[in-house]
Specification:
The complex is a heterodimer of chains A (122) and B (231).
Chain A: H1 11-24, H2 37-44, H3 48-60, E1 64-67, E2 71-74, H4 78-102, H5 107-121
Antiparallel strand pairs in A: 1-2
Chain B: E1 2-13, E2 16-27, E3 30-35, H1 42-49, E4 57-62, H2 69-72, E5 75-78, H3 90-100, H4 106-115, H5 129-141, E6 147-151, H6 159-171, E7 178-183, H7 186-189, E8 195-200, E9 203-209, H8 210-217, H9 221-228
Parallel strand pairs in B: 3-7, 3-8, 5-6, 6-7
Antiparallel strand pairs in B: 1-2, 1-4, 8-9
Helix pairs in contact in B: 4-5
The chains are: A mainly alpha (122), B alpha/beta (231).
Chain lengths: 122, 231
């Protein structure tokens, strides 16, 4: 199986997260046609109904759209993509921040350290 | 629409109640895991669905029919042990399946047998245990059936073949068919399941959508299984 799923989290939400990431990172380009539900399901090693459910939810969020006869496509809407980027970046930052807080750093220390690290990296 | 209706099904072997008042309604278009420890009644239930055992009490209907000649036309059954004549090779077995089952898709069977690298001219007798299992599964999955009853389809095969089998089940999926997979190797198959049924000492203890369980309990089906069936 190609994909690794975590325990205890619904598989359809994990598919949504994974595919959303692929859209945000440009692995799927805007307007790209998606494979059929069955092929996507086979690749991911999941039930076709689960894949269908994930895609329906992504459609509801405006990340993909379907055309009745020709299939499903990644959104071309730049606003949606920009918003998606922002959301994902924020989510990663929150995770990162949470880890630093667990190390016992307060927000002021986080702020100054991040500044210093950024200078070091760039 | 429910394609399988089971109501108040009980099966006794002397003193032992292998199935105890089982009622289930199973829909088309689903892949269902029938999960339970050894001796919980999985095989007994599957054998009744396939008409190999008669219920002691209760009723079973498959697409409106009692298990029998009519239902066997739409039920593809993989038994938990080899039930095919062992002097036959893959080619002869395909001939036999073609004679027996109108819905047998020979090209599909040949493609699967090739994919799995099974020698068409080797007799079953000379095959390894795993190869026998693979061949039987190819024959069963090459039918365009409405009900697939797979009793321990992945028990004796290597992980690569297991993946191939699961992919075959997924790609063979169609919305008019129901696939019932009995196993205790849950972590290997749980990502392909719509619904799971837990069976314990002949009773159904749980029947729910797999993702609902993950969402609600925050654990895998395998994890929940270990909890429910803790020794």
């Amino acid at each position: 199986m190609e994909w690794n799923f975590k325990n205890g989290i619904p598989i359809y939400t994990q598919i949504i997260d994974e595919m959303t990431m692929q859209i945000a990172s440009g692995e799927y380009s805007p307007g790209e046609k998606l494979s059929s539900v069955r092929d996507l399901a086979t690749d991911a090693g999941v039930n076709p109904n689960t894949m269908q459910r994930a895609l329906a939810e992504m459609e509801r969020r405006g990340l993909v759209y379907s055309e009745r006869t020709s299939g499903r496509f990644v959104t071309k809407d730049e606003n949606v993509l920009a918003k998606l980027h922002e959301e994902l970046a924020k989510k990663y930052f929150e995770e990162f921040n949470e880890k630093l807080r667990k190390l016992g750093m307060d927000s002021e220390t986080v702020r100054s350290s991040v500044k210093r690290w950024l200078d070091e990296i760039v | 629409m429910a394609i399988i209706e089971i109501s108040g099904l009980t099966k006794s072997f002397g003193e032992l109640r292998a199935l105890d008042d089982v009622s289930l309604s199973l829909e088309k278009g689903q892949i269902i895991g029938l999960l339970g420890p050894n001796g919980s009644g999985k095989t007994t239930l599957i054998k009744i669905l396939n008409g190999l055992l008669q219920p002691t009490a209760g009723s079973v209907s498959i697409n409106g029919m009692a298990p029998g000649v009519g239902s066997k036309k739409i039920v593809a059954y993989l038994p938990d042990r080899n039930a095919l004549p062992d002097y036959m090779d893959a080619k002869k077995l395909m001939d036999m399946y073609q004679d027996f089952f109108e819905d047998f898709d020979r090209e599909r069977a040949e493609a699967m047998i090739r994919d799995l690298g099974i020698d068409m001219k080797q007799t079953m007798k000379k095959m390894s245990k795993g190869t026998k299992e693979k061949l039987q599964l190819c024959l069963v999955m090459a039918r365009q059936a409405q009900v697939y009853l797979l009793d321990e389809p992945i028990g004796g095969v290597d992980p690569a073949t297991r993946d191939y089998i699961l992919r075959t089940i997924i790609s063979n999926y169609n919305e008019d068919a129901v696939v019932i997979i009995s196993t205790h190797l849950i972590s290997d198959i749980e990502s392909v399941l719509d619904d799971v049924i837990f069976i314990k000492e002949g009773k159904i203890v749980l029947h729910r959508a797999a993702d609902d369980i993950r969402e609600e309990k925050g654990e895998s089906i395998d994890g929940l299984f270990r909890e429910v069936f803790k020794c």
